[in-house]
């Protein structure tokens, strides 16, 4: 068989494969469209097919380029908004305390992370607690150094002096730098409703925003901070009622020496939230804000 015939057959099979047609079907089609004169020059035909195939590949490659980069599958969970998920933020105010280590152990047992809005405490046990909060993957946020209302809310300047004292201690001794704040008593505490102190609280809130802090209140008050006599079951019930029809819950709990029932209630609270389909997260600058009006 001559070289021309070999090239003729190669052209037929090569192009048929490209177009996903049977060789005979393509051959007949070419005869009908172009006539037999093209079949009589197999070299020219073969070169035409090769060039066409190269152009086809180039066009296919160009068309395959996306205007927007595709999101890798492993990144999708990170990019999805939490707004449609059931997320619980466990927050503990006023620690460290003599209960902190037990709280941390319970959180570890359930593989849950929490946010601790801490005070300034220079006691050796407290320093160990700060370090354990960090090493176990929890978030440390700012509450106040003294938690003494007569100092904290004496003036706007006094508030920030107290807060900066806490910041300095945390950063110097533990390398913690946070811009997340919870005011003692919350942003809508009783002093905000008194004529003498309302301007002070409003000034604090304004300056917090201007200085780049983010303050957080809560959506559920566990009521454990009312009195040490609040029972374990009352604390659990308050949390359960507060979660009704809520996807994002920010739960106020307390880490205080006298609040033993908070520690007792914590396992049941976590188990209930998990049963209801909540995941747990810590508060950071990307967390949806919870602020009282």
TrEMBL record:
Record bears the keyword Hydrolase: yes
Gene Ontology biological process: carbohydrate metabolic process
Ranges of residues in domain NodB homology: 86-281
PROSITE patterns: NODB
Bilayer-spanning residue ranges: none
Keywords on record: Hydrolase
EC number: 3.-.-.-
Source organism superkingdom: Bacteria
Pfam families per the UniProt record, alphabetical: Polysacc_deac_1
Enzyme class (EC, first level): hydrolase
InterPro entries recorded: Glyco_hydro/deAcase_b/a-brl (IPR011330), NODB_dom (IPR002509), Polysacc_deacetylase_ArnD (IPR050248)
GO molecular function list: hydrolase activity, acting on carbon-nitrogen (but not peptide) bonds
PANTHER family: GLYCOSYL TRANSFERASE-RELATED, POLYSACCHARIDE DEACETYLASE YHEN-RELATED
Protein name: Polysaccharide deacetylase family protein
């Amino acid at each position: 068989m001559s070289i021309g015939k070999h090239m003729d057959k190669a052209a037929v099979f090569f192009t048929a494969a490209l177009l996903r047609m049977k060789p005979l079907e393509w051959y007949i089609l070419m005869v009908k469209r172009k006539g037999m004169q093209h079949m009589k020059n197999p070299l020219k035909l073969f070169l035409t097919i090769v060039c066409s195939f190269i152009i086809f590949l180039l066009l296919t490659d160009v068309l395959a380029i996306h205007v927007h980069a595709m999101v890798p599958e492993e990144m999708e969970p990170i990019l999805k908004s939490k707004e449609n998920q059931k997320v619980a933020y466990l927050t503990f105010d006023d620690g460290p305390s003599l209960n902190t280590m037990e709280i941390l152990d319970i959180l570890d047992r359930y593989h849950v992370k929490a946010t601790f809005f801490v005070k300034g405490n220079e006691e050796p046990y407290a320093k160990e607690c700060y370090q354990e909060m960090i090493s176990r993957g929890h978030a440390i946020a700012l509450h106040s150094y003294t938690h003494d209302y007569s100092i904290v809310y004496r003036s706007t300047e006094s508030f920030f002096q107290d807060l900066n004292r806490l910041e300095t201690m945390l950063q110097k001794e533990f390398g913690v730098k946070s811009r997340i704040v919870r005011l003692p008593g919350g942003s809508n505490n009783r002093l905000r409703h008194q004529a003498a102190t309302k301007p002070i609280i409003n000034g604090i809130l304004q300056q917090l925003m201007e200085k780049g802090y983010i303050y957080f209140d809560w959506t559920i008050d566990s009521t454990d901070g009312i009195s040490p006599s609040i029972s374990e079951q009352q604390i659990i019930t308050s949390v359960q009622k507060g979660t009704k029809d809520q996807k994002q819950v920010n739960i106020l709990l307390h880490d205080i020496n006298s609040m033993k029932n908070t520690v007792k209630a914590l396992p049941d609270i976590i188990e209930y939230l998990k049963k209801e389909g909540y995941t747990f997260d810590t508060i950071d600058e990307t967390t949806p804000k919870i602020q009282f009006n």
